[in-house]
Write a structure and sequence with these properties.
Elements (H helix, E strand, L loop, with lengths): L2 H32 L29 H11 L1
Length: 75
C-alpha cells in the first residue's frame, strides 16, 4: 500500500463524516427556522419607605396602597 492510497482512504471516510455533519446542520437549521420564537420576562419590584414624617406623609403605612403603589405602577 502506497502513502497516496492511505491518504485517499482516509479522505473518503472523512468525506462521509463531513457530509453527514453538513446534512445534520442543514436539517437542524430548517427545524429551528420553522419553530416560533417565544420570549418571556419577569420583574419583581420592592417598594419601601425609609423615612416617614407622620400620618400625612404618603409613605405612611395606611397610605402606601392608595398613594405610592399606583404611582409606581404607572411608571
Amino acid at each position: 500500500m502506497q502513502l497516496t492510497d492511505y491518504v485517499r482512504a482516509i479522505a473518503v471516510r472523512w468525506a462521509w463524516v463531513v457530509a453527514g455533519g453538513i446534512l445534520g446542520l442543514l436539517l437542524l437549521g430548517t427545524i429551528a427556522s420553522l419553530t416560533p420564537v417565544h420570549y418571556r420576562s419577569s420583574v419583581t419590584l420592592y417598594v419601601g419607605a425609609t423615612l416617614v414624617d407622620g400620618p400625612q406623609d404618603p409613605a405612611y403605612a395606611t397610605l402606601v396602597r392608595s398613594e405610592i403603589l399606583p404611582s409606581v405602577a404607572a411608571l
